[in-house]
Amino acid sequence: MSDLAAYLGAAILVAWAASMSVLERHGARRPIRRAGLVFALCEGCSLALLAPRTVSALTDAGLPGPAVVAAGDAVRALAISFLMMLACALNPRGCGRRPGCQLAMAVLVQAAMLALFVIARPRLDAEGELMADPPGRWPLALRVAVFAGYAIWALTELFLALLPQARLAGTRALRWGVRLFLVAIVFGMLWSLWSYDDILDVLRHGELNGSEDVLSNVLGAVCASLVVTGALLGRSGATLSATARWLRLYRCYRLLGPLWTALRAAMPYIAFPQASRPRMAGRLRLEFALYRRVIEIHDGRLVLRPYHHPAVASWVAAASDSGPSDALVEAATIAAALENMRRQRRFTDSSEAPAGDPGLVLTDLDSEVLWLSRVAWAFSRSPVIPAVLERLRAEEG
């Protein structure tokens, strides 16, 4: 389980970093993107290097076990350093230090971890545990504390730098991507805090899990998954927005179908000539068809104005359990007007300002689409429409 989680997290991070490097090799790489990709690559390599099976295989190949663990920790500390660089690039004043100072801090942390490891002189037992004699327990515990403190500091700075972007990002997909990054940072903090349990083990028993334990590798895999998912979501925001818009337009197109069909059946002359349809594909073709329906419905509504019955609004109010919406009143007005047109009944006194017709004054085309979608839904599905038509026919009788 520990090996599986470690290798899974490593594969996700390394594959994502490699793919992003290939896709953007011809473009300008900003420091933010560069720091993020190097962090992902280093963290993925450290997860794979510190996996129990990797440590065992390298030890069997003749490499000193403590050296393998020290190398894995050095790569992970390097990843944390690039994480701090990323936080400074996102919010230069948040860290309180310039990039040069952060570089010096990264070198100091690496040197301190190496010196404490040499002073502790641990050995690796058959189960992959680092063992330290009583004189080396304090240096080894201090080494763990230095790395955990540095990691928590970097994660805190990155969290504070990203937090405003969760509300200010330009698109919904980008905002959700930032939120996933924030969740990943929280898991990263838990991962780092779990290291303090190792400090107690070192001080009490002189034992330190040289290769990561199950919980640490699971937390690492979760962090990797959240980071890559957030990055992909942020990058694909435009694609997701376009897809969501296409689905919304298609839903409106389907909703307008019954109303559009009824109006064209009663007034075939409102239809555009087929020869005027341009050759388009994909979303543009759907938008053209949808807006064409909107215009034809709009023309049909204008033709029906002399046939509007002045009492429709009151009939709808009487037939509705709650207060009728403007869309329902408009749908009932159109349905009654179509019936009056079939019977050649005009109401010229209502042609100037028909009741329940706010859609005629909308100037934004998308707003018109949404308004007519609500009208079309009520026209085809509301039980009030048959009640209004039944009352209209009863009035004639």
Structure description:
The protein has 397 residues and is mainly alpha-helical. The protein folds into 2 domains: 2-235, Rhopdopsin 7-helix transmembrane proteins (Up-down Bundle); 243-396, no CATH class. It is 74% helix and 2% strand. The protein is built from 16 helices and 3 strands. It has helices at 2-23, 31-49, 52-60, 65-90, 99-120, 134-162, 165-168, 172-193, 195-205, 214-235, 237-266, 282-303, 312-319, 326-342, 365-381, 384-396; strands spanning 123-124, 129-131, 207-209. It has a 3-stranded antiparallel β-sheet with strand order 1-2-3. Helix 1 (2-23) runs parallel beside helix 10 (214-235), helix 4 (65-90) runs antiparallel to helix 5 (99-120) and helix 6 packs antiparallel against helix 9. The longest helix has 30 residues, at 237-266. The termini are far apart. The model is unreliable at 25-29 and 350-362 (pLDDT under 50).
Offer a quick outline of the entry.
The protein has 16 helices and 3 strands.
Please supply descriptive tags for the structure shown above.
single chain; 397 residues; mainly alpha; Rhopdopsin 7-helix transmembrane proteins; 2 domains; 2% strand; rod-shaped; membrane; DUF6545 domain-containing protein; MAB_1171c-like; transmembrane; DUF6545
